[in-house]
Amino acid sequence: MGKQENILQEFRRIRINEEAVNVEKIYFYKTDRRVNSKQEEPFLFFPGKLPVLLSAPHAVRHYRQKKIKMSDQFTGSIVYLLNKLTDCHAIAATKLYGGDPNVDNPCIYKEKIAEICSREKIKFILDIHGAAHEQEFDVDFGTNSGKTLLVKAKTLAILEKNFQNFGLIRISYDHFAATSPNTLVNYVARELGISAVQVEINKHYRVPAQNPQGFHRLMGALMESIKELAQ
Fold first, then answer.
1. How confident is the model at residue 176 (pLDDT cuts 50, 70, 90)?
2. What is the pLDDT of residues 37-55, one digit of tens each?
3. Residue 214: CB atoms within 10 Å
4. CA 10 to CA 68: how far, in whole Å?
5. Do the bridges between strand 195-202 and strand 139-142 make them parallel or antiparallel, or are there none, so unpaired?
6. pTM exceeding the 0.85 threshold for the entire prediction
7. CA–CA separation, 187 vs 193, rounded Å?
8. Rg (Cα) of the chain, in Å, rounded?
9. Which stretch of DSSP H or E encloses residue 78?
10. What domains sit in the chain, N to C, each tagged with a CATH number?
């Protein structure tokens, strides 16, 4: 039995897809109730030991151009579970607070990430997002044409290898180009000097109750990538 099958078998044993559903209900429930970020912390930080930070800025609903936008379903649960599986760091939005953590400038989410990166000596960031089911890719890696990778040229090869090993073979690049200077990955690379990739995941792999096998494969690919990126 190969390494990938061993990992998938373990995920089936511990029913990680069911755990994702439970986590989503507890931390990332969908509501239009807005909170005051000065009175109630709208983010959760899950500390780890590896110098990799996972981010899920759209784990819950958010505001863009004064309109409420839908959440990227299960992205918060994904980073939460990967924190437990790999001991990486993770941060996710948990409350609707009147902004968009990915594109705002100034941005309290980015300020929080800057604080975490300085304190925890973070070397790499994966910013997890969700794409619609009809997109013609399993996963898209956004690097603003390589600019957010800085000097870590092998990063995409690591991600490609692990996603392909777990059967996510429809890979695209910069479909959502992340070219706006205020997106999280551009901010992190420019202002913090940390390599970052925006990871857009097709909804087909973000429905753990309906597609547990696909969810397991996604989690395996991310888990193995995090371990390598931390080295």
1. confident
2. 999 999 999 999 999 999 9
3. 20
4. 38
5. antiparallel
6. yes
7. 9
8. 16
9. helix 75-86
10. 3-229 (3.40.630.40)
